[in-house]
Design brief:
alpha/beta; Rossmann fold; OB fold (Dihydrolipoamide Acetyltransferase, E2P); five-stranded antiparallel β-sheet; 8 helices; 17 strands; elongated
Length: 247
């Protein structure tokens, strides 16, 4: 059995995740934790589970606070409605980051990913988590944006480009431009590098939406959907850009 803990301060969300996990007979939920204080106490007094499903924003702080005070070798799958914590999550034993509302197929994929990290039976299980996690980085598949008082989930496959303007990073889709909580540096770390490329200090473009590339007098990229400003490739990035196009 896979010993599992749920960290979630909203009871309906906790019950829903528990119901979804009941479809995995190999998973045994040993505790449900609702706060940072309760989490620190539980992880201080109990054997750490193999797998942890953790919301990030709790009533008394962030769940990161638990694992910064009580380091764990368990694998963490973060479940949250907020995308701005992605980068930090990946640095704290995270093997996946699921945006709410959690989809059945995303949960199944996360559980299967966890299983692929379980040490073989002939090992003593003492390997460090960083040695078990695959070398390829986790990638961002969805972005949560705020529109007035509403939240909207946008799949990264719908995004033509990301760009910075007046210290805010925006994403461009077919419909419109949306502000995000990321920096371009953070996005470089979490986007699929086969699909997205940073052409200069201001723009990250998607290969799926490149319409045309001008090469004279400088490299300029026309996207199917883009802001009014033209997108040029920095001179020191041209070779990498050409390599990326055919990779």
């Amino acid at each position: 059995m896979i010993k599992t803990v749920i960290i979630e301060d909203e009871k309906p969300a906790s019950r829903k995740l528990e119901r979804m996990l009941s479809n995995f007979p190999e998973i045994e939920i040993v505790a449900k934790i609702e706060s940072v204080e309760e989490g620190v106490a539980w992880f201080s007094e109990n054997e750490h589970p193999q797998l942890i499903f953790s919301d990030i924003v709790l009533g008394d702080g962030l769940s990161f606070d638990i694992f910064e005070k009580i380091p764990t070798k368990g694998f963490i799958i973060y479940t949250t409605a907020f995308d701005q914590y992605t980068l930090k999550a990946f640095k704290l034993n995270s093997i996946d980051y699921l945006l709410k509302p959690i989809l059945d197929e995303d949960l199944e994929g996360a559980v299967e990913k966890f299983k692929s990290f379980i040490p073989a039976k002939n090992t003593d299980g003492s390997q460090d988590i960083k040695q078990l996690i695959r070398k390829e980085k986790s990638t961002l598949s969805r972005v949560l944006v705020k529109i007035g008082y509403n939240l909207k989930i946008i799949q990264t496959q719908e995004i033509s480009c990301f760009f910075s303007e007046n210290k805010i990073v925006y994403l461009q889709t077919e419909d419109r431009t949306y502000p995000s909580d990321f920096t371009l540096d953070e996005l470089e770390d979490v986007l699929d590098e086969k699909k997205f490329f940073r052409v200069n200090r201001q723009f990250i473009v998607s290969s799926d939406y490149i319409k045309n590339i001008h090469t004279s007098p400088y490299y300029k990229v026309d996207m199917k959907f883009q802001p009014e400003e033209e997108i040029t490739v920095s001179r020191d990035r041209v070779k990498d850009f050409k390599d990326w196009l055919v990779s």
